[in-house]
Design a protein that fits this description.
Rossmann fold, pyruvate-formate lyase- activating enzyme, 2 domains, 6-stranded parallel beta sheet, 17 helices, globular
């Protein structure tokens, strides 16, 4: 029998739909890794090219983030109209299984690897259940290497993604990761990760670790970074800004080939940071921390959440000036988005402030709630303006004009974001 693992596209005219550099969905490759060998597997990414509906697959398996789920439901409906059985998992479906079941035959709630073999066995036996709920969390030592072979011929320009840890020990109110995993932080054995990296570097010297916080446990991260030294890998991942305080581990990361980190600054307002649960961030030290990253050869893709309750229309100019003064190599400015399952959604629902449940608009580019310190239009206009200003040629020059080893990544990234923003405006 045959499975088609299907990743839905992003809405056109949106930033993430217009970006040229797209990574395949690692979660589908992770589920493929626990698929019994008698099953034939195929993969298609609807973001790369249109989905062919004449597939000979017996089972269609989808996953989707909230902003993609409208497209996922369209694909599911189309396949079911053609007599196919469709199953779905992921953050959104796990939080809203009853909604997903209006479009698919079965929903996987939680980590798919735990229940996927049983789902397949039930499908073959003609007794597929509507919901498969993972009982607990998968032991990290049992996570097999992802089956990246399913990405062959998919059209992605980069497929070297890997996960070493799952979850995050912190509890930021806007975060879907904690909502899905709880505050549980699991680590794959270092020797398993290093063996997988040996395989990846034969394909490409660049690697992206999709971990939500690769440095949450230095007793794990430090041996990992030391084991990577000399492998010739250049890598990126996610880390909190206070990673800069651990000079030994920062040095080890740089020496192991780290050229960039996605860093959640979130806000320049300390009161807002406390309110959102970002307990490790100290806004007063941001510039010093950013310089520490740079001194160790690590560039920063910063993230600043726009529309927090402490924000006024002045936040956009203040944030832009900070990013340029701190010479952040790149940044995104997501509008606060109340994703299903998150603490912020429960709070804003209780306050009666959510006015838009069109999931396509949950792309961090559209205002879906009533902000407290500005109008909806001021938040939307401010977001659009800061994105254009940050990726203007003038701002790019001010931030990137000094040579730095991370420029090989962030130079391309800036051009890519600028082009996507311009395409988005044309398509608007």
């Amino acid at each position: 029998m045959k499975i088609l693992f299907l990743s839905p596209g992003w809405p056109k005219g949106r930033l993430w739909g217009e970006l040229g550099f797209k990574f395949p969905t690692l979660s589908l490759a992770a589920v493929a890794a626990v698929t019994p060998p008698q099953w034939e597997v195929a993969f298609h990414d609807d973001a790369i090219k249109p989905t062919p509906f004449d597939s000979d697959a017996d089972l269609i398996a989808l996953t989707a983030m909230t902003a993609q789920v409208t497209r996922a439901y369209q694909l599911a409906d189309a396949f079911r109209e053609r007599g196919k059985t469709v199953v779905m998992g992921g953050f959104h479906a796990s939080n809203l299984p009853d909604e997903a079941l209006q479009h698919v035959d079965s929903v996987v709630v939680g980590e798919g690897e735990l229940v996927w073999p049983q789902l397949l066995a039930d499908f073959q036996a003609g007794r597929l259940q509507p919901v498969y709920r993972a009982d607990g969390l998968l032991d990290a030592s049992l996570i097999p290497p992802a089956r990246r072979d399913i990405f062959k011929g998919s059209g992605h320009f980069f497929t070297n993604t890997i996960q070493t840890t799952r979850g995050c020990p912190f509890d930021c109110e806007f975060c879907s990761v904690t909502a899905f995993y709880g505050r549980n932080y699991r680590k794959r054995p270092v020797e398993q990760v290093l063996a997988e990296l040996e395989q990846l570097r034969r394909v490409n010297s660049f690697v992206f670790f999709v971990d939500d916080n690769i440095v949450a446990d230095r007793r794990y991260s430090l041996p990992l970074f030391e084991g990577m030294q000399g492998m010739g890998i250049k890598w990126l991942s996610h880390a909190p800004i206070d990673f800069a305080e651990d000079r030994e581990m920062l040095k080890a990361a740089g020496e192991s080939g780290c050229v960039g980190m996605f860093v959640g600054f979130e806000s320049l307002n300390q009161s807002s940071l406390v309110a959102m649960g970002k307990v490790t961030n100290k806004a007063v030290s941001y510039k010093e921390y950013a310089q520490q990253f740079r001194d160790h050869g690590i560039g920063i893709l910063g993230s600043f959440v726009m529309g927090c309750d402490g924000d006024t229309p002045a936040v956009f100019e203040q944030t832009l000036r900070f990013c340029e003064d701190a010479r952040l190599e790149s940044a995104i400015f997501p509008i606060l988005t109340p994703y299903p399952g998150t603490t912020v959604r429960r709070r804003l629902e209780a306050e009666g402030r959510i006015f838009n449940n069109n999931w396509q608009d949950y792309d961090m580019e559209h205002v879906t709630f009533q902000p407290s310190g500005m109008t909806v239009q001021e938040l939307q206009d401010g977001y659009d303006q800061i994105c254009r200003s940050f990726y203007s040629f003038g701002s790019m020059y001010r931030r990137l004009f000094k040579l730095h080893r991370s420029l090989q990544v962030f130079g391309v990234m800036n051009i890519g974001f600028r082009a996507a923003i311009r395409r988005k405006r044309v398509g608007a």
